[in-house]
Amino acid sequence: MKIIGLVLIILIAILQYRIWWGEGSYREINQLEQQIAEQTKINSQLKVQNSDLQKEIQALRKNPELLEEIAREKLGLIKPNETFYRIIPKK
After folding, report:
1. Minimal CA–CA distance to 57: which of 42, 39, 73, 70?
2. pTM of the full predicted structure?
3. Whom does it interact with, and what assembly results (predicted)?
């Protein structure tokens, strides 16, 4: 009887170890759920960013004047026979 009780206690201890600290434990599952939540949040932010970029692409395709305006602003492009003046503000 004592041997059966000892075997059962050892078996329960092994199972408890696996539940709390082993592979697939509660702690590991909680960490994975947190990672999933963080990645879901990042994905939703990226979806919004992709949507904004898609809208900008459509606007650029439909309106060549907008494309010219952005090129002039970001790249500093000027047309032939134009004079470019750069005004440096005082600090």
Report:
1. 70
2. 0.56
3. Part of a complex composed of FtsB, FtsL and FtsQ.
- Please name the amino acid found at residue 77: L
Query: Using one digit for the tens of pLDDT, what is the confidence trace for 10-54?
Result: 888 888 777 777 777 788 889 999 999 999 999 999 999 999 999
With b meaning 16 or more CB within 10 Å and e meaning fewer, what string describes 47-68?
A: eeeeeeeeeeeeeeeeeeeeee
What's the pLDDT tens digit per position in 46-56? 999 999 999 99
By the 8 A CB rule, do 51 and 41 touch? no
Q: Residue 33 carries which side chain, given as an amino acid letter?
A: E
Which amino acid, one-letter code, is at 62? K
Euclidean distance between CA atoms 10 and 79, whole angstroms: 84
List the chain domain ranges: 2-75
Transcribe 25-42 into DSSP letters: -HHHHHHHHHHHHHHHHH
